Amino acid sequence: MTEPSELVEQQGVGIPDALQRLWTPHRMAYIKGENKPDDDASEGCPFCKVVEMDDEAGLIIARGESVYALLNLYPYNPGHLMVVPYRHVALYPDLTVAETLELAEFTQRAMTVARDVSAPHGFNIGMNQGVIAGAGIAAHLHQHVVPRWGGDANFMPVIGHTKVLPQLLAETRNLLAEAWRKT
Q1: Would you say residue 75 has pLDDT above 80?
Q2: How far is CA 131 from CA 67, 116, 148, in A?
Q3: Residues in the active site (predicted)?
């Protein structure tokens, strides 16, 4: 490997650095915002579309009366799921009392199921309200439930800029869905 002090400027492509690159062109759809709704309209909303799919194809773990749980297609960690209202609503205060209650119940159950399946040491729970707050799909409210383990943010994402997911999403979905039915 070339030492950083030995790197020279390349014509037209920038200055090389000591970081290795793992190219992930499939993520360009996410970066470009493809399939993200631009406004309050539900046309084109992936959270509105996914409920029309069968559970396995849509990575849906469980369905309730007013909310459902599904795996995040772009997970931060293994088992990263979301609880989403069926109704296309952008902001938490706009939920009905019934939607708020079921969203909270599904969040609790998601934590219980994740503990049973993969024994995380902790969780990050939250929602980003609005694009400026980091919401990838701001037009349709969704709450993240992210299992965490000691050392899960080790050198790979910090130095290698790479996430390691030990299981395919379909396999994770099947384990969580089966455990959900048993709780």
Answers
A1: yes
A2: 22, 33, 25
A3: 142
Q: Could you give the CA distance from residue 152 to residue 173 in angstroms, rounded to a whole number?
A: 20
CB 73 within 8 A of CB 66: no
Residue 161 known to be catalytic: no
Residue 93 lies in a domain: yes
Q: Is the pLDDT of residue 8 over 60?
A: no
Cβ-contact 103, 81 below 8 angstroms: no
pLDDT tens, residue by residue, 114-129 = 999 999 999 999 999 9
Domain count, the chain: 1
Structure tokens at 117: 């399946």
Who's near 30: CB < 8 A, 6+ residues apart?
74, 136
Task: Residue 72: give the domain boundaries.
Answer: 33-182
Is 144 known to sit in a ligand binding site? yes
Mean per-residue pLDDT over the chain, rounded: 84
Q: What is the CATH number of the domain that holds 73?
A: 3.30.428.10
**Which is the catalytic residue, given 88, 121, 140, 142?**
142
- Has residue 19 been placed in a domain? no
- With a pLDDT cut of 90, the percent of the chain lying above it is 56
pLDDT exceeds cutoff 50 at 10: no
Assess if residue 6 is contained within a domain.
no
H or E segment and range at residue 124: strand 122-126
Is there a domain that residue 39 lies in? yes
Tell me the backbone φ, ψ of residue 179, rounded to 5 degrees: -65, -35
